[in-house]
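User: Can you help me understand a structure? I only have the sequence.
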Amino acid sequence: MNDSRYRYHRMVLILVVSVLLFIGAGCQQRSKQEVTLYSATSQSVQTGQEITQSDLPPAELVFYNYANPMPDQAKVMDEVNKYLKRKINATIRIITLNPTDFEAKIPAILASGQPADLVFTSSWTNNYLANVSRGAFLPLDHLLKQYGVGMQKSIPSILWKGMLVDNQTYAVPLNKEIGHQYGILMRKDIVDQYHLKINHIRTWEDLEPLLQIVHQHEPQLRPLDTPEMLYRSIPMNHIAGDWYLPGAINIGESPAFKRDDHQVFNQYATPEFKHFVETMYRWNQAGYLPKDPMYDAENDWKTGKIFAGALSYAPNYVYERSNQLGYDLDYVNLGQGVIETSDVQSGAFAIPRSSQQPERAMMFLELLYTDPYLANLLKHGIEGVHYIKVDDKHIEPAPGIDHLNPKYDYGYGWMWGNIFISYFDKSYPQDTYEQYEAFNSGNIPAPALGFNMNIAPVSTEVAAINNVLAEYYRPLINGTVNPQKVLPMFLQKLQSAGVERLIAEEQKQLDLWRAAQSSTSSMP
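Assistant: Let's start by predicting it. Here is the structure, written out as tokens:
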């Protein structure tokens, strides 16, 4: 962190608090028109003072978020900013970037230092650990103590633990499902028509007979959208906190990779990976998979042209997805749910180092995680315009809204902070919150849960390896190239990029972390 900027903001904050205390001492009552930020902020807890919008100068925040823009976003943001103006005397400009634009533009924005107050980060895009390593994010612990008390109480401790890097927090984790559980969504009418035995599915390989039947009898359907999530269902503990980087250890009582439980290995150089990509190539040749490795399946899902798809599942998502698409779906799990450090870091909000107003950015996050009105406004849009309430937990589209093409509704909603203050579609059962709790407690912790890799010592190798992955990973995983020819080239280029140095560094840091854990646990 820039020390001079930190000292500056700290001095400003001390002066503001002093002024507030002085005003509070000389004025026992405030105008009823003033709007209290929170009655439970640490300011009120620690000093007896409440921050109100009249205490704060106007501010505009810039927030880069990962999502597909909605047609009515400007209309919703007008309502959001009216509310924020009353609550914290601020407005926010949310720049919503689709996945391709987000991945292309955000690294340059963070590297350039252009003003940005909030940004989405995760283990799978705009990588959290990589950004912390290069100093792109501000440490947040002092801001959380002053402006994030509600968030700290509502977010489970395991999530905060997973965000720690050298005992500092650099992003606020999303409070949603904890861990990953992969599974298969299938068109229920096709399952019923051909009496497909979906209850027999246990692993990705069990899908093949179903795909064969569908391809034979329903040639107009794509049997499977893309197979990447099938590969992710193979349990392994990713040491670098990145789903793509080489370096893993076994997970679970029956490891999918026959390796020593404590030895880091390159998952791409295993017989198991070779078997997977060879199978995907065979499936692709048989017509079960798309020929384009960058295929986007959403339009085909909406028009009913796909039979099945693999995904990372959240409790009861099958109901909401069925409602979104307008036809019924079946769902089956693939294996045991797991909690890795990368799962804990699967979605979070960071304050970039270039932020000119980190205090106000943290105030916004506190609202987002603790204020149901703001959370549901950003998730579902305007009540009466985009949705209507069915009961205190459930909603449905407002009259005249096409649920297949809504003008505003991030129904998946996991990206908006705290799912436990969010409304669900009316198709969700009443015990959805309880099912989330059961899901989270039922997933098994990975052996290296809480370990955060510092990639700085091998940053050159990681950059080179990522270039190799960008060229070879998706074509191999999606079965669009012959692995007999391409897999050896992929492995050789990984070698040239320094994969052995990466694996060695991962092993070194993991061993040191294990030793520290053992030392801590043995203390009286």
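Now, to help you interpret it: The first helix runs from residue 3 to 26. The CA atoms of residues 375 and 511 lie 41 Å apart. Let me know which part you'd like to focus on.
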